[in-house]
Amino acid sequence: MSEVRIGVIGTGVMGTDHARKLAGGIPGARLTAVQDFDAARASALSRELDVIALAQADDLIAHPEVDAVLVCSPDGTHAALGLKAIAAGKPVMIEKPLAAERTEAEAILHAEMAAGRRLVQVGYMRRFDPGYAEMRRVVANGEIGAPLFLHCQHRNESSPSYLTSDLIIASSAGHEFDAARFVLGEEIASATVISPPEPRHAPGRKPQFIVLQSASGAVVDIEVYTDARYGYDVQAELVCETGTLSLRPGPPTSLRHAARDGLVVPGDWRARFADAYRLQFEAWILSILTGRTNEGSTAWDGYMTMLVTDACLKAWRSGARVEVEQPDRPAFYR
Amino acid sequence: MSEVRIGVIGTGVMGTDHARKLAGGIPGARLTAVQDFDAARASALSRELDVIALAQADDLIAHPEVDAVLVCSPDGTHAALGLKAIAAGKPVMIEKPLAAERTEAEAILHAEMAAGRRLVQVGYMRRFDPGYAEMRRVVANGEIGAPLFLHCQHRNESSPSYLTSDLIIASSAGHEFDAARFVLGEEIASATVISPPEPRHAPGRKPQFIVLQSASGAVVDIEVYTDARYGYDVQAELVCETGTLSLRPGPPTSLRHAARDGLVVPGDWRARFADAYRLQFEAWILSILTGRTNEGSTAWDGYMTMLVTDACLKAWRSGARVEVEQPDRPAFYR
Amino acid sequence: MSEVRIGVIGTGVMGTDHARKLAGGIPGARLTAVQDFDAARASALSRELDVIALAQADDLIAHPEVDAVLVCSPDGTHAALGLKAIAAGKPVMIEKPLAAERTEAEAILHAEMAAGRRLVQVGYMRRFDPGYAEMRRVVANGEIGAPLFLHCQHRNESSPSYLTSDLIIASSAGHEFDAARFVLGEEIASATVISPPEPRHAPGRKPQFIVLQSASGAVVDIEVYTDARYGYDVQAELVCETGTLSLRPGPPTSLRHAARDGLVVPGDWRARFADAYRLQFEAWILSILTGRTNEGSTAWDGYMTMLVTDACLKAWRSGARVEVEQPDRPAFYR
Amino acid sequence: MSEVRIGVIGTGVMGTDHARKLAGGIPGARLTAVQDFDAARASALSRELDVIALAQADDLIAHPEVDAVLVCSPDGTHAALGLKAIAAGKPVMIEKPLAAERTEAEAILHAEMAAGRRLVQVGYMRRFDPGYAEMRRVVANGEIGAPLFLHCQHRNESSPSYLTSDLIIASSAGHEFDAARFVLGEEIASATVISPPEPRHAPGRKPQFIVLQSASGAVVDIEVYTDARYGYDVQAELVCETGTLSLRPGPPTSLRHAARDGLVVPGDWRARFADAYRLQFEAWILSILTGRTNEGSTAWDGYMTMLVTDACLKAWRSGARVEVEQPDRPAFYR
């Protein structure tokens, strides 16, 4: 195979962005089909990009001109679609989360193991962000010693009204959990959650402060504040035995204007992680073409992130520290 | 009074620094006497600075040419000396902590209230650091909304071998507790402590991660890492409803040299807080001359910081969240 | 055409880098052939990348499986190869400079105009660097007013011994001249050159300070220091009427280690401009596929940069301000 | 003498600021008298600060309770007042410039030499700014080699309408000339001036770009833009053989708010150089008390800065490079 033909399921904001990128912007990839439960939306995009529109996700997965599937549909459909792609023997990238329910995620693990080869990648794109990748590299080679702390801040400019305090843990924090496991290279052992007061402009939605401890004891603290008003901002500082490494915000220029000197903060995540999305796709395509694995999140990673999420929700409800369940990691996922 | 004549008790590293500064560097202050349990040390300094050396702290406090007393002797002596200064009706600045034991601190509160005027200031100099002062100002005037988070990092280059994991909480973290109360302008309600592993180069001494929650619910997290090797580094980020404010490290220049571009990190706290110490002395002297209060730590502040410390130690030992005792604040200290 | 087949002439350091990138890393591009005057070098690369090796540049240009040509051979060969590509009707990207001699450059302009379509692009990749692109955007839309100053610094870690003071102007400064014309969107009118002393570690090679003035009067000052030891560093600050915009150095992380806090400075330009090279290739390929122009340097740009260079050399030799020749810009290049 | 009694001549904006600072804020200094050509203004300040108001500058200089004089009156009066202070044998600090006319400056040099001791200091306070002081220190000890370049930017938010293009050179740039001489530790040999266009919002007032070359050949380039709108901003980068040192803007905190992340830029110079003014006064008082010299500008420094200014004005008018006159430096000023 010298080219991977891709079908995209779900053409909402993110699916549309991805489809446009895959239609010509990723070496070795060719977009061939799109599908959405809203047929008109899929149809419009298919005309724009000159690809097939299919009415049913099953038809897309089965289509002979689709070598690999990208799942961008609502969270509740992820697992079922992932299982169908596995059944069809086709590589599938699933936007986070892997599944809505734990049993679904376990079904995917079993199906993939039964298939005998890695077919599933979860779209935790931060692993491909040059900043997080550098943090991982520095932990792996130990050049400033072993990790002691990982301080994380995740801020959105504003959030939709359906986002509730528990969804901030269950959904918004997911990228942080995966990033912590990736950077530290180990599992998360326990979780504690403390909530500051609601900001007055976002009643009913508490920011969250999540403290995890990894298997080796490193402390990971995560601020999630989804209504920070000033912009979209993701920060992290890794503290190792003899030094620290921090993310630097992305802008390629610094502006002095109107009594301020510094960076323009973007309103959403797209500019911040544009490189990460591109590099994630390039790595995925290369893996499909060569059979070699990449740094991306596996089904196991997606599953463990769900268990961390479960522990955080329990910790939040109870006010106590909660251990994260630690199922045995199958050899297949080592 | 147009000039305040000061006696310094304790001429170790910090007492000597302070004495030199007071001997000519602070408007309205004049150093007149020094005392140390090591008479030779006090005597050498008295000759250098052309002031009296006294053998006994009591004599210094009582001396007619001493209008105000600065206590820099070991922690265990702070309370007794503070009480004597109060008894003599002389203003006293006590290096942190206010006292070694809670009952001692309470004795000071009672004595000062009995004296009927504020005589005690505790040397938590960060309140006079321009960065912390700006944080306090921004909280007080609400220009970016109410505080939600205060992220703090306190790192030393290295530490003496007597510093143990519990002393990191009991002693090193003290400045952070006072700074949090000062910036937020309210009491601390609860404490949780989580310890990452010991760094290999400092066995027997765990870094600490302390999570406080203030009366209004703001979350304060404090990393204390006393063996960070790369230098002395104090960071803080205040997160309010619509913006954040961060400390900027101090150097007035940025260096590009030897494959690095950035700041030189000092080895200890003196350069970092030189301005804060000077401004603290200036404010203290001005208060003595005018009778007006300043932003400095009162005996009440010193006492409450001790109660926060007690709660942190209990939280560390138990692994659970511990409420901070909240004695009624006397009208005298409002 | 859905794919552009590319042949690379010259497989030195830069040609090899480019060839590897084109062999799979650029959407729509396919590397098909390489050539070098050192046949063994070309042959080794052809085996590594599984493409044809050709003995003669002419054969590569003429080859039916080569749709477009990338010229990375020595400067003296650029013009002749460019002319042959034009004669063959094939798009050609020429690494800077466009030509070694002015008459050669003029021959290219005439040949391209005679061909009736834009075939030549010069590899001044900074135009595709996100930082310079943002500067250009800000000038073009006038959001901080008209440009008054452009301060530029170009520093290399070290340089080969053949680099002399005049070559610093004639060769190293070329990227700066093109970048200034690009950012300001106008021609350079005059040049003044002042040389500081030679650094002791690089005898015989003076750093240069070049001051240009644009057609509208904006002042462009350029420091070129090719032996700065601490690393490769390109800086620029654009000063407009009501604000300034500065390049930010590239690293995605900031390091605190060994008494320093800041960025790691790379030793050469490859990491700094990796994105610019990639985006330049993507834009070139897209232009070939669609026939639409891109932001890249045209033959006219390459020619005008040569005239700026000539004026700078004269200014350096004479110590006086020298006007840049201003030939009429043909309608073809507007 | 254990205290220096100071009289201030000229109680405009700067004289009033200085008088308030000297009235209690500088160790060893006591403000005793003020004078202004506007008697009411001097009188109001004298009441505020509880000092004498005098009607005539001569009376202030002669007053028995004035040990030292600070001259903050209009530029045209500086030299005459300086000469009178010298005649009275009293130390005098003269706000920049030393004199309005060259012959006046020479008269001061002769008078001071005749007096046989250093009595004059010129208020180029940047020498006491911690950033410039660090630059000087690094040049003096050679830790990153010899200086090659000094890039300077001086920007004001806005300027009064009487400021003309030539006054930008004659007045605004003065601090830069003194700073360059101070940092490099040598004289300025030549000057070239190039003017960009006038900004549209400040017609009749061109920003200026001044290029100096020092005795050793180091190149100093100075942007002076007095209508930069975004705020008051002074930048400098010193480039030495193996590294560079840059000023860092002053704020002790960094703000994220309203889609920006960075520093708040002040509207004028007072906050930026508050430390420098204080340290300059402290050094001046200490010199008077001890007889030891300090790092401040001498009459010679003030004179040489005038000669640099003269050369710049000639260079601006002629468009050519102009040599700075180099009178022999008397042994008295070495």
Automatic annotation (TrEMBL), chains A, B, C, D:
GO terms for molecular function: nucleotide binding; oxidoreductase activity. Transmembrane segments: none annotated. Coiled coil: none annotated. Keywords: Oxidoreductase. Residues 132-245 form the GFO/IDH/MocA-like oxidoreductase domain. It comes from the Bacteria. SUPFAM superfamilies: Glyceraldehyde-3-phosphate dehydrogenase-like, C-terminal domain, NAD(P)-binding Rossmann-fold domains. Residues 4-124 form the Gfo/Idh/MocA-like oxidoreductase N-terminal domain. Belongs to the Gfo/Idh/MocA family. This is Gfo/Idh/MocA family oxidoreductase. It comes from Acidisoma cellulosilyticum. The lineage of its organism: Bacteria, Pseudomonadati, Pseudomonadota, Alphaproteobacteria, Acetobacterales.
